Amino acid sequence: MNIGPVGQFPPYRARRLRQSPALRQLVSETQLSAQHLVLPLFVRRGRRSRRPIKAMPGIFQLSPDEVIREAARAHEAGVPAILLFGIPDTKDDRASGAYAANGIVQQAVRLLKRELPQLLVITDVCLCEFMSHGHCGVVRRAKSGLSILNDPTLKLLARAAASHVEAGADIVAPSDMMDGRVRAIRKQLDRLGFENIPILSYAAKFASAFYGPFREAAESAPQSGDRRSYQMDAGNAAEALREVALDIQEGADIVMVKPALAYLDIIHRVKTAFGYPTAAYAVSAEYSMIKAAAAQGWIDERAVTLESLLAMRRAGADILITYAATAVARWLAE
Ligand SMILES: [Zn+2]
Q1: How many CB atoms lie within 10 A of CB 304?
Q2: Which of 25, 121, 167, 243 has the fewest beta carbons closer than 10 A?
Q3: What's the gap in Å between 95 CA and the centre of ligand 1?
Q4: Alpha carbon of 64 to those of 43, 113, 163, 201, 290: distances in Å?
Q5: Does 54 qualify as catalytic in the annotation?
Q6: Which of 91, 258, 271, 291 is catalytic?
Q7: For residues 149 and 46, what is the distance between their CA atoms, to the nearest angstrom?
Q8: What's the 309 CA to ligand 1 centre distance in angstroms?
């Protein structure tokens, strides 16, 4: 790279281009706009019900009618997509609620597509919320402990994804981190004539403490053991690239890095290495930490939220999944 007189003062004066808002905008390298935002929503049975999630101020478990209201609000503000998570009434060890034709997610998707046909509905595809043990896959218990069975899980994931699409989902997003799930889902969707439905894979999903508040939101904490046998080790970047390569090879259309802010290097590497549409998931604790510090008056909620999301865009994210999506869209419109 020929950098000319950079670093040679006085010919190069970096401050020349910072003198006015118009000049700064003219040379700004990264833009944040509502078109990139996705709002996660949690649905459970009921009517006119909004159960607050304590660790995530402003976020609720919503009954389907309230999901519509919340989604409509986001859509009006300019948010083009939501990501739906379901909380079933009953759980079992086959996660049958995940693929029931009339499961909570499937019901909510039908309602969303009827009431807000222009809004993109992405569904989270996983089993943990629907499993009595809270793990993302089929579990075998042995004396030596508990193991999560990879291949038997794939069939259930493919069934769940297909049932979401049959209900009207525009995009399915597998989050389980089993090996081979993208291919299993792609094959199942193609077999059913859904070859045009994209898959957004949680490709590099790390075993992260930043998911803490989400477990309350989705009621999906494992009852025993942890997720380290399927989610990634926080220190592994080369492995993240292998995970992403695998998902792309299996048919992923969009790849995700999760969490976002503590993993900007991963977002950057993934975008640089593959050039695929890349999503960043600003997870529950990223949201809650900003909310908590702002409530104390220690930080400016709006400025810190926007700066965090801008950093994800700068790192290479095309799509930003954030609990603050509606607020952000409104701020950006002001
Ligand atoms: Zn899961």
Answers
A1: 15
A2: 25
A3: 11
A4: 6, 12, 17, 25, 28
A5: no
A6: 258
A7: 33
A8: 24
Catalytic hit among 91, 205, 271, 291? 205
Rounded distance from Cα 252 to ligand 1 centre (Å): 18
Q: Is 291 a catalytic residue?
A: no
Helices 301-315 and 264-274 sit at what angle, rounded to 10 degrees? 30
**pLDDT of 57-76, one tens digit each?**
999 999 999 999 999 999 99
Q: Kindly provide the residue ranges of all beta strands, DSSP E only, lying in the chain, ordered along the sequence.
A: 37-44, 50-52, 60-62, 81-87, 120-125, 138-142, 145-149, 171-174, 200-205, 254-258, 278-282, 319-322
User: DSSP for 89-158?
Assistant: S--BTT-GGGT-TTSHHHHHHHHHHHH-TTSEEEEEE-SGGGBTT--SSEEEEETTEEEEEHHHHHHHHH
Measured from the Cβ of residue 299, the count of other Cβ atoms closer than 10 Å reads 16
Q: Residue 190 is encoded by which pair of tokens?
A: 């193609």
Task: Kindly give the distance from the C-alpha atom of residue 136 to the centroid of ligand 1, in angstroms, as a whole number.
Answer: 4
- The stretch 101-120 carries a mean pLDDT of 98
pLDDT at 6 > cutoff 80: no
Peptide bond into 222 cis (omega under 30): no
Query: In 3-state terms, what secondary structure has residue 271?
Result: helix
Q: Which helix (H) or strand (E) holds 250?
A: helix 238-250
18 alpha carbon to ligand 1 midpoint, in Å?
46
Report every protein residue that has its C-beta within 5 angstroms of ion ligand 1: 126, 128, 136
Strands 60-62 and 50-52: antiparallel
Output the CA 273–ligand 1 centroid distance in Å: 27
What's the angle, vertex CA 122, arms to CA 170 and CA 75, rounded to 5? 95
Cis ω for the linkage preceding 10 (within 30 of 0): yes
pTM of the model: 0.96
